[in-house]
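Problem 12. The chain below contains 257 residues. Write out its predicted structure in token notation.
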Amino acid sequence: MVRAKKRLGQNFLVDENILGVIGRLAELADDDVVLEIGPGLGILTTYLADRVAQVYAIEVDTSLGPQLVERLAGRPNVELRFGDAVRLDLAEAAPGAKKLVANLPYNVATPLIAESLDRLPGIELWTVMVQREVADRLFASPSTKAYGAVSVLVQLVAERTGFHPVPPTVFRPRPNVDSALVAFRRTGLPHDFRRVKHVVEASFAHRRKRLANSLELAGVAERGRAEDAIATIGREPNVRAEELAPAEFLALAEALE
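Solution.
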């Protein structure tokens, strides 16, 4: 019997009833090329493989190899690769992928989503299972507790198209938290997104401090210059990062240049 590894954030999907919801939110079509990160026991992988043209599945846990290979036997449209998705060149690992559909490992879900926004420019639709807390962050509104760097980055690139709460009972082992399926579609990619991402992450690095102080502490700009940039976008010098809407961060990054 395969045991989930807590250090890898594993909670294996075991209830096949949730697959139909995933398929609906992912808008699966028979010509789709899909990237799956963290196939686990392969339940979602086989569901996808039976409905799309190609699945690229990336798994970090090599001990799952024998079970995955056995389960995926007879499905030549699945390419299974072992490696750390955080470090892999995902665009190279999943050529032509237009959709990312995954039960993401809890401990890397947020950085994977943030990195996929520009590391995978070909992805047009994400359908990801994440902790409910993470799901709430992705499309949180400014001036709320959940609003943070990942909220800004995702909302600069995509719009939410679906949301479905998921109980712990669909996983083995059962997590102590609720989960949710979130689907979002790409709307574009801001110019110089890496620069914008750097400014956004620096802005929230010290979220209890004023935005200008946080930018200075993160090494983006000395406080006077940061305050000038903040004034340029029409904000008061004592504003905090969580008060700015996503579009304002684009203007801030431009002003800081």
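Discussion. The mean pLDDT is 93. Students who got a different answer should revisit the alignment rule from Section 12.3.
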